[in-house]
Amino acid sequence: MFNGLSKTYSLVSVVEEHLHMLLGGGMTVKVLVSEDCPDSERYGIYNDERIEWVKVTNRFEGKQIHWMDYSQPTGSVHPAFFQEAEAISVSLYEAFRDVEVVFLHDILYQGWHLVHNVAVRQVQVRLPRLRFLAMTHSSPASRPRRMDWPLSARFLPLPNTTYLYPAESGLPALAGQYQVPLELCKAIPNSLNLQGGMSEDVQKLGQLTDLFSPDLLAVYPGRLTTGKQLNKAAALLGAIGSVSGKRVKMIFCDFPSMDIEPAVYKRIIRSEGERFGLGEAELVFTSDLGWPDGFPHRGVMDLFTLSNLFVCTSYSESFGLIVLEAASRGNMLVLNQAVPALEELGNRLQAYFMRWHARGFGVDTRETYHPSEEAYLREHAERITGLMADNPVIQAKTITRQQYNPKWIWENRLMPLVTNR
């Protein structure tokens, strides 16, 4: 029952995310708002042409209905209350007649919406097939011992309803408010749409490849030159996936080099990654997905916000600014210790070191691994996996990306309720 769509009202942003989920899931959606909600305030997903925008009456006998806060459980309502509820119910009935599921946001909870609460109940009697998802966004109210109708509507169950709350911890209190079985109460966490605030390039990339589900996501920007030893980074990611059983992904934000034909080096990188267990879909070159001359810097920084591991296998570096950029976005750093500049910077940043071929000051080093390169990679892969698992900051970052993004919440929490599966 929005009267406006200002983002200062946090529920506007929550509903915005739910609309992204519903439309992204292929649902046919109506949005019901007060007739006093200005069309001029619609933005973003609220302007999506797939949405049927419905204005619910807010007039009785030609005058605007002024909502009153009936949060108390006892007492009386103003004289025109039931007539206003009836007028609203007529409007709601027309909107509900051809829908299967009605998603209510705070309508059963808020004292300000008692008139809409009662109107919904009137429509439910006429349309008993309707299923309701009733979301409560604030701490559930304690059930009072004494209640008077219609103020008691804030504590009475609504037929054919599943009750929703953002956190599991609040479900017993939610069940107590409406005196319903706990199994009718479900948690739908608020989502964090990280990608929605990122550059258009990252949003486009996210439509082409999965950026959210990998347990370990590594991003490596660089030229397609053998000097960057990108094949070694792919090999390490493959080893990490093999020894840990975790989902891994490497995204190379690559651009051409004069040193070697790009297609040739890409085949080498893929071959090396596959040799150590990196699947075809787990290795992505942005040049293959629409950015042949490099991925924009802002996009790289956004990808570092999503990733949790940065591997720099470079043969030579004078400083390594990209290391600072990855570190600034909370990535675990794995650096080539044989490169003096990377060792210097890595020591200050408490990076994890491995050794690959390198060029120092007038000296080229060649690494030999005993008993084998595979054993070396697997040994370090186990250590890296363990360190990342023990790092609470990296774990928090990873869980936020994986399990609080809109797609995960839709597929695992909301879609089963909407589709009744």
| Number of helices, where a helix is a run of at least 4 consecutive DSSP H or I residues | 13
Element pattern in H and E: HEEEEHEHEEHEHEHEHEHEHEHEEEHHH
Ranges where pLDDT stays below 50 over 5 or more residues in a row are none
Approximate strand percentage: 15-25%
CATH architecture of the largest domain: 3-Layer(aba) Sandwich
Q: What is the average of the pLDDT values?
A: 96
Helical fraction equals: 25-40%
Instruction: Label the structural class.
Output: alpha/beta
Annotated CATH topology of the largest domain = Rossmann fold
> How many discrete structural domains?
2
Find the CATH superfamily of the largest domain: Glycogen Phosphorylase B
What's the level 1 CATH class of the largest domain?
Answer: Alpha Beta
| Radius of gyration, in angstroms, nearest whole number | 28 Å
Mind describing the biggest β-sheet?
A: 4 strands, parallel
Q: First CA to last CA: what distance? A: 28 Å
The tally of beta strands, per DSSP, is 16
Structure description:
With 421 residues, this protein is of the alpha/beta class. The protein folds into two domains: 10-193 and 410-418, Rossmann fold (3-Layer(aba) Sandwich), CATH 3.40.50; 196-403, 3-Layer(aba) Sandwich (Rossmann fold), CATH 3.40.50. Helices cover 38% and strands 16% of the residues. The protein is built from 13 helices and 16 strands. The protein has helices at 10-24, 81-96, 114-126, 171-178, 200-208, 230-244, 262-275, 297-306, 321-328, 340-349, 373-390, 392-403, 406-418; strands at 29-34, 51-56, 59-60, 63-64, 101-105, 131-135, 161-165, 185-187, 216-223, 248-255, 283-285, 309-312, 332-336, 352-354, 358-359, 364-365. The protein has a four-stranded parallel β-sheet with strand order 5-6-7-8, sandwiched between helices. Strands 9-10-11 form a three-stranded parallel β-sheet, with helices on both faces. α4 links the parallel β7 and β8. α2 packs across α3, α6 (230-244) packs parallel to α7 and α6 (230-244) packs across α11 (373-390). It is elongated. It comes from Paenibacillus glycanilyticus. This is Glycosyltransferase.
